[in-house]
Specification:
The protein is 66% helix and 0% strand. By secondary structure, it is mainly alpha-helical. Helix 2 (27-39) packs antiparallel against helix 3 (54-63), helix 2 (27-39) packs parallel to helix 4 (65-78) and helix 7 (114-126) runs parallel beside helix 9. The termini are far apart.
C-alpha cells in the first residue's frame, strides 16, 4: 500500500509539473503561446501585431531543445485537417516552418518527426486552399533544392519526392497555379487566398473594392513586419544568401508599388481615412526595406 501511495504521489507530482510547464512561464509554455499568436495573426479578429512574437519563438527554439520540440508540435497541430476551415492559420504555420528551418535551423527541424510528416502529407493531398498548397509546395521545393544535405529534413524531402512522383504518374500538374480561386461567399470572413497576392509583381489598376483593399493592406503590413523580424533574427553572415529574406523583400517591393498606385488612384480616389492608412502602410514598407538595406551594408562591413 505504501509503495502504491508513493507511486501515485510521484505520478501526481510529475503531472503537476507538466501542467505547470504548459500553463506557466517555462520556455515551452511561452513558445506554445507565441506560436498560437503568430499562426492566428491576420485572421478576422486579429490586428496582425501578433507577428511581433516571432523573435521570441526563434530565441526559444534556439536556446531550449524542449521549446523547439514544443514549437514543432504546436505547428503540426495547426496543419491538421481540423484547421482546413481556417486556411490563413495553415498558411502562417507553413511560413513559420520556413522561418524556423532557416533560423535556428536543425535545433528545430530535428523535431519534424513521423507524425509531422504524415500531417504534411495529408495537407498536400487533401487541402483545397490554393494559397496553402502553393506555399507548402514552395517550402518543400526549397528544402529539396536549398537544404539537400540537411539530414534532419531527409524524411520530409523523401516524402515530397514520392508525392511529386505520384502526381507526375497520375498526369496532374506539378504545382498549384498561383492565380487565386474565387472565395466562397461566407460573409465578412478573412480570405486567405488574397494572402499570397504580393508574392508576384502587380500593376494596380485603380482602387480595389473595400474588402479586398483591406486584405491587401493587412498583407502589406504583415510582410513588412516579417521582413523586419527575420532580418533582426538572422546572423549578419547569412543575410545575403537567405532565400526567405529575398522572398519577403520581393513581397514588400511588390506591395509598395501597389500601395503607391492606390494612393494616386483616381478611379476611384481613396477617401481621407483610406489615404492616411495607405500612406502609413507605405511608410512601414519603406522602413522595412530601408532597414534591410542597412543590415546588408553592415553585414558586408562585418564579414569584409
Amino acid at each position: 500500500m505504501k509503495r502504491l501511495l508513493s507511486t501515485v504521489k510521484r505520478r501526481g507530482s510529475q503531472d503537476s509539473r507538466k501542467t505547470e510547464a504548459v500553463n506557466g512561464d517555462s520556455p515551452e509554455a511561452r513558445v506554445a503561446r507565441d506560436v498560437k499568436l503568430f499562426c492566428e495573426s491576420g485572421g478576422p479578429n486579429n490586428s496582425g501585431e501578433e507577428v511581433l512574437h516571432l523573435p521570441g519563438i526563434v530565441e526559444a527554439a534556439e536556446s531550449s531543445p524542449p521549446a523547439a520540440r514544443e514549437a514543432a508540435n504546436q505547428v503540426r497541430k495547426f496543419l491538421t485537417k481540423d484547421n482546413f476551415p481556417r486556411p490563413f492559420v495553415q498558411y502562417n504555420a507553413i511560413m513559420l516552418v520556413r522561418i524556423l528551418a532557416d533560423n535556428p535551423g536543425k535545433s528545430f527541424t530535428r523535431n519534424l518527426d513521423t507524425k509531422f510528416i504524415v500531417t504534411v502529407k495529408e495537407l498536400l493531398r487533401d487541402c483545397a486552399d490554393p494559397s496553402v498548397q502553393q506555399i507548402l509546395r514552395e517550402t518543400l521545393d526549397n528544402f529539396e533544392t536549398q537544404k539537400p544535405n540537411d539530414e534532419t529534413l531527409a524524411p520530409l524531402r523523401e516524402m515530397w519526392k514520392k508525392e511529386k512522383a505520384k502526381t507526375e504518374k497520375n498526369g496532374a500538374a506539378r504545382s498549384v497555379p498561383p492565380v487565386p480561386m474565387p472565395p466562397v461567399p461566407m460573409g465578412p470572413v478573412y480570405n486567405a487566398n488574397q494572402q499570397n497576392y504580393f508574392a508576384r509583381s502587380h500593376k494596380p489598376h485603380g482602387l480595389p473594392p473595400p474588402d479586398e483593399l483591406a486584405q491587401r493592406i493587412e498583407e502589406a503590413k504583415t510582410s513588412s513586419k516579417l521582413l523586419l523580424q527575420v532580418v533582426q533574427s538572422t546572423p549578419p553572415g547569412e543575410l545575403q544568401g537567405n532565400e526567405l529574406i529575398k522572398e519577403f523583400v520581393q513581397r514588400c517591393q511588390s506591395a509598395s508599388t501597389s500601395v503607391q498606385g492606390y494612393i494616386h488612384s483616381t478611379s476611384p480616389p481613396p477617401d481621407e481615412d483610406t489615404l492616411l492608412t495607405l500612406i502609413e502602410t507605405n511608410d512601414q514598407l519603406s522602413t522595412a526595406l530601408s532597414r534591410h538595406q542597412r543590415a546588408l551594408l553592415q553585414a558586408v562591413r562585418v564579414t569584409g
